[in-house]
Amino acid sequence: MITDLFSLRDQVVVLTGGSGLIGREVVKQLPQSGCQLVVGVRDTDRFKAQLATNSYPEDIARPVCLPLDVAAPESVKAFFRALWEKYGRLDALINNAWPRTADWQAKFEDVTPESLYKNLCDHAGGFFLCCQSAAEYMKGQRRGAIVNMGSIYGEVGPHFPIYEGTDMTCAGAYPLIKGGIHTFTKYLATYLAPWNIRVNCISPGGVADDTHQHTAFQRRYIAQTPLGRMGRPSDFVGPMLFFLAPASGYVTGARLQVDGGWTAW
Ligand SMILES: NC(=O)c1ccc[n+]([C@@H]2O[C@H](COP(=O)([O-])OP(=O)(O)OC[C@H]3O[C@@H](n4cnc5c(N)ncnc54)[C@H](OP(=O)(O)O)[C@@H]3O)[C@@H](O)[C@H]2O)c1
């Protein structure tokens, strides 16, 4: 059946960053594919309150959460151990968390070494450690799928005039991290292929966020985007499902730009 191509029925899928802008939408929609979504969160009570605002059909598994701080190596290990003890399988990982320091928006000239190292370590390191732990369990099953969230800024430089007159910028650490995540995806794709573990990357463009973005920035961003709008959190659910599902069974090491054409010119 062609619908089976996009079914994750009975699969156990891990998501990080499930309380964020994009993650919240994944938590709402992905369970409809039939999977048991297990969301790794720092604050389980806050996440349960978020979950209580969602409604799910009765015949699908509601998402659950387990404690996870991707920036703490012991927490990463404990999360995957607890997941394995509870479900005895791990079909997929979506690396989507975005740890960042309070001074993330500092100008390039003002970034301190401490801030730089913390961002590199927590964000890129968090992706690395989650892949490492997940792969350990997936290797035993000889099957698995990993999706890493990259960014347009892992591919192209920012067009800085879009930030002019606002307190927004693209942090200097971001391309360093996201470019690394793009290449790390290819590394893992070839490294884990013998165990039938596929590793792919989604490269999102800017997502509209009215609470944190200036309207001038949004207007300029849209003017540079061929499809004439910023991203919506729901734009990423289909690409994630594709990379996790049988439909992409022969796809590994790919990077899919989901950016309205931002990087097409
Ligand atoms: N938004 C965009 O325009 C955009 C564009 C390109 C790429 N992306 C990428 O897409 C992904 C999701 O972005 P987003 O905008 O949805 O992010 P977001 O709204 O800032 O949310 C970040 C998420 O990461 C979690 N997180 C932060 N530090 C963590 C830690 N140490 N351990 C576990 N979880 C942690 C946060 O949880 P708490 O609730 O605990 O803080 C939150 O759920 C990121 O990888 C980002 O780089 C986003």
Automatic annotation (TrEMBL):
GO terms, molecular function: oxidoreductase activity, acting on the CH-OH group of donors, NAD or NADP as acceptor
One GO biological-process annotation of the entry reads: fatty acid elongation
Q: Which PANTHER family match?
A: 3-OXOACYL-[ACYL-CARRIER-PROTEIN] REDUCTASE, CHLOROPLASTIC (PTHR42760:SF40), SHORT-CHAIN DEHYDROGENASES/REDUCTASES FAMILY MEMBER (PTHR42760)
What species is given as this protein's source? Solidesulfovibrio fructosivorans JJ]
InterPro entries named among the record's database cross-references:
NAD(P)-bd_dom_sf, SDR_fam
Task: Return the protein name.
Answer: Short-chain dehydrogenase/reductase SDR
Hey, which family's this protein in?
Belongs to the short-chain dehydrogenases/reductases (SDR) family.
